[in-house]
Amino acid sequence: MDQPKRPRFGTLNQSEINQKREEVIPTATRKANEKSARALQAYLTEKGINSKIHELEPVELATHLASYYFNARTVTGELYKRSSLDNFRHGINRYLRSPPYNKKFDIIKDVEFREANDNFRAALCDLKSEGKGNTTHYPTISSADLQKLYSSEELSIHTPRGLFNKVQFDVRYYFCRRGQENIRCMKKDTFKVEIDSDTSAKYVVKAQDELTKNHRGQDQETFSGFMPANPSSDSCPVRSFEKYLTKLNPSCDALWQRPKDFLTASSTEWYYNSPVGEKTLRDFMKTLSNKAGLSRVYTNHSCRTTGATVLSQSGFQPAQVMAITGHKSVNSLAQYQRVSSGEKLVMGSAMSSALEGRPTPAALSAPRHTNLYIRFNQLAYVEANTTTFA
């Protein structure tokens, strides 16, 4: 008897397709979209409008948005910052255009929303005049705090907790990781150690591609940094990473495992057969800042900010830095090219010197950071401590 012919094509229905589309939306983005929608919905409810925002026709929604942009307030009745209002606008747009609603209109680009968007721009000007125009950036870890952190017992490779902290900080810093993104999903095989064929230098590289905020399924290139060995240093990140892998619990696939509090002389496994909790990972830099006695409390995103800032200040071109951080535009990278308070003080002193007829200090030069290796998409190998970049 002939076997039934196997269908050539898939049979996913619209509900299943919607689910697939929802799965590729980053969790943080989905939460931001829902928060934006809730805020607009609360505004409509307070104004006596019972319709759900996804039920409104474009013209009606545009009318409400034109008013909402001027009247949006926090739950305590305060004005939003300009950046928050901008995020809400984009969040509402994504909320409506994503499953399950799949709206075809665009509240940012479509002509039906021109008046609403004119009002939006006017509202941003109002917020700036009210002192709500400043953007709070993630703090960059100062050079002094970096040195203090690396000399701290909190990053000692001789204890389970210290080794865990050291390797996780190195991964966040060298690979310019974004906050919590995919950290808890990492497995033992997420990274691997390789040897450069030209220099015989060891380095850790990402072994598996991943979905990130900036890079989804349509991207064809992998953006990632290299974590190079520094054999002469006690803090060599490759040596720490290799040691960490040998101490992990073999029964658990998670890369980030719970450190044991006590070890015996014969202990070969330093970690429990369970992954680190989400809260521990979320508070990683906050906890580390407090325990190491740093000058301020840093966030997880500070590791990414610091890595990108070091690369920019070391003279690497934007395209090179973007190959590490995964930014998709030079504009989005510009936030890492900030002028520090110390640099502004030097520049202010130069201006004072000019007023008093004294020689002005020499122009600030970009700091140089040694022992930094970067791999570009063309596999060009650059050793920063022997090459000077303009």
| Biggest sheet details | 3 strands, antiparallel
Instruction: Write down the secondary-structure element order.
Output: HHHHHHHEEEHEEHHHHHHEE
Alpha-carbon Rg, integer? 25 Å
Structural class per helix/strand content? Answer: mainly alpha
- Proportion in helices: 40-55%
Quote the CATH topology of the largest domain: hpI Integrase, Chain A
How far apart are the termini?
75 Å
Q: Given this structure, which CATH class of the largest domain is correct?
A: Mainly Alpha
Total strands: the figure is: 7
Strand arrangement, major sheet: 1-2-3
CATH architecture of the largest domain: Orthogonal Bundle
The percentage of residues in β strands lies in: 5-15%
Shape: globular
Structure, described:
With 390 residues, the protein is mainly α. The protein folds into two domains: 14-129; 143-303, hpI Integrase, Chain A (Orthogonal Bundle), CATH 1.10.443. It has 14 helices and seven strands. The protein starts with 13 loop residues before the first helix and ends in a 7-residue tail after the last strand.
